[in-house]
Amino acid sequence: MIVYLWALVELLLVSNPFQISSSLRVKALQLFGAEIGTGVIFRPRTRVKFPWKLHVGDRCWIGEGVWIHNQDHVYVGSDVVLSQDAFLTTGSHSVRTDMGLVTKPIRIGNGAWITSRCIVLGGATIGEAAIITPNTVVRTGLYVPPESIFGQPDPQILGSRYKPSLAENESGDRN
Predict the structure, then answer these.
(1) 53-74 tens-digit pLDDT
(2) Looking at the whole model, is its pTM more than 0.90?
(3) Which of 94, 83, 1, 13 is closest to 48 using CA atoms?
(4) Who's near 138: CB < 8 A, 6+ residues apart?
């Protein structure tokens, strides 16, 4: 029942494209269990799957169209910017077995900047004051060091879906 009630509140107050008050968005998220610090701005068209699994520090800026698909916990430090249309997802699937749901938390350090249209996958950790360049995918298990600039400009074939490769983790999942 709480999930359906949240979906309605999210539609009316959080993902709403109109310029309603950011503090109203924050209060709605907090009402459903989100831990949000002071001075946080949530722009229009943001989405949060499960607010009770969201932890945001002080003075963060969550840009327009950011989607936090948090089936596991998302920890965002203070003074973090999540730019327009960034997508954070903590869930994936066990592709070689039964397609079962696999979740891992995301951790973003103080002062980090996730620029526009980035994708951050569950299990990723982004260090303090790191910058993720536009359109970059931060993969599962990746640790981005503090104060680094991280980007992936050239796509490449990483392995085979059904034949394990050295680049994969022990469980056989690729996220």
Answers:
(1) 999 999 999 999 999 999 999 9
(2) no
(3) 13
(4) 118, 119, 120, 121, 124, 126, 132, 144, 150
